Each structure stands twice: as C-alpha cells, then as structure tokens.
Amino acid sequence: MKIRRFLSVFLLTLLLTGLFCVPQASAVDLPQVNAKAALLMDYESGRMLYGLNERDTEYPASITKVMTALLALEKGNLDDVVTVGRNAYGVPGTSIYLNLGEHITLRNLLYGLLLASGNDAAVAIAEHIGGSVEAFCTMMTERAAELGCENTV
After folding, report:
1. Active centre residues (catalytic)
2. Which pTM does this prediction carry?
C-alpha cells in the first residue's frame, strides 16, 4: 500500500511539475560583427533588435555616398549630362578618374559612385545637383532630418 501511495504521489508530482514548468528559452546567439558599431532595426515597428555602440559618434564613410545617390535620384535626371569641374577632378581617395571638363551622364556618375566608391563622382554629383559641395551638404543634412536621422551633419 505504501508503495502504491508513493508511486501515486511521485507520478502526481511529475505530472504537476511537467504542467507548470515552462521551458526556458535558450540564449540567442548574438551576431558576429566586426564593425566598431552596428544597429539592426525592425522596419515596421522601428524597434531596435540589436545594437553595438549604436550611440557612439562615427564618421559616415560610405553612408555619405548612399545619401548622395538618394538625392541624385530624387533631384536629378539619370540622362542629365554633367560636366566635370575643377573640384571633382583629382579628388583624393578612391576615384573613377574623371577628367577635367569631361561630359558624363548622371547615370554613369552614379555607377562610379556606388560601384567604385568614386570620391570624384560624388563631388561631380554634388556640384551638379546642389550647385556647390557646401549647398549639397546642406541638402543632405536636411534630407537626413526628413528621414528621421538625428545628430547627422
């Protein structure tokens, strides 16, 4: 009788433990990121899913080129013919080797900007769309604010 009672209590304990114990979620493996900073957000909700030094101030690097391309597509015409000016010719850093006075379409400048990371193409686009690099930089800052970017210059 004692054994039957013991087995009953034991089985009841197992049953109740199984019903009320919620298995814990296993730890999620964080992504391996080799950057100094990173941010992953859900597009629909705007909720941050992952952040690594996301509030640190960093140089914009190629994000500037992405914004340059965005403004070129929004404000320019891909078939516009751009004349390469003195400021775009011989710009240091990565280049598509534009020649002074060269005539090139905005479309081809965008290819040079985005595929070859051409700094000279970026300057030529900026002067074509904004009239000057300084005016174009103001346009980029304003557009970034419209997109909800904060602390962006």
Report:
1. 62, 65, 117
2. 0.70
